[in-house]
Structures are given as structure tokens and as C-alpha cells.
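Box 3.1 A note on notation
Throughout this textbook, protein chains are presented in two layers. The first layer is the amino acid sequence; the second is a C-alpha cell string describing backbone geometry. Keep the layers aligned when reading.
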Amino acid sequence: MMFLVLNRCALSTSRPGLARVKSGRNWVCKTSSSNIVRKKPKRLLNSRRQSNKRDVLKEKIKERIARLRSEMAETSVEQKSIVEGQKQVLKKTEEIQRESEQLRKETKLLSQQNNDIRERLNLIFQILKARVESDSAKVAQLTRSLRDLMIAKPNPK
């Protein structure tokens, strides 16, 4: 018969009352009382060690809370700077919109003035052409039209 040194249970199957099972790496006998593993009772930590552990845990928690508070303060400062930046951007865009509206008005006014000047020059050239052709009736009519145009739309300065 072969014996395991650690478990001291016969591995022979010739004995009918013994059954073998694999426990971890070793074969153990189910019926043998020597294989019963009893857990050792936990030793109670003395109150001093327990309080030290509690103190360490409390310190860790306090450190984490302090770190989180500092991170929250940093985040708050960043959010305030972002809000301030957004306000500045909004102010600049409003200013740009006002300037662009002013430029549109000025462009429209310049375009209107350009059209008025072009119309006057056209009348003046027609008057010159009529004088070259010695057509005094046409010259008088064009001169009257030019005066009416000048009175209706005075030259803006």
C-alpha cells in the first residue's frame, strides 16, 4: 500500500470504506477524521491596533476630501474664467455687429450718392452734346432737369 505523507490516508481502493477525492494537489480520504481542516479562530486585534487602523482610514478620508475640495476650487476658478471669456466674446461680437451695420449704412449711402452723381454727370454730358449740336431747346430742357434734380437731391456733404 502506498501512503501520502501529508494526508496519511491509504490510496488503495482495496478497502471498501475509504473513498478518495482530490483536494487541491493531494488526494484525501473522505472518511478519515485526520483530514478535517479546522480553521484557526481569528485573533482579535487589540483596541490599540484597531484605533490605529481607524485613525489611518480617517486620515486617508480627510486627505481625499481635502484633495477633492481643492480640485473643486480649481474647477470653480476655471468655470469663472470661462464665463468671463464668454462674456467678452459676446461683447466683441455685438460690437462687430454694430460696426458691420454701420458699414452697411455707409455703403448704402455711398452707393446712393454715386448713383446721384452719375445721373447729374449724364445730364451734364447731354447738355454739352446739345450745345455742340446747337439745339437750344434741348439744352434748356436738360438744364431745367438738372436744376430740378439738384433741388430735389441736394449734394450731401
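The chain has two helices and two strands. The longest strand covers residues 20-23.
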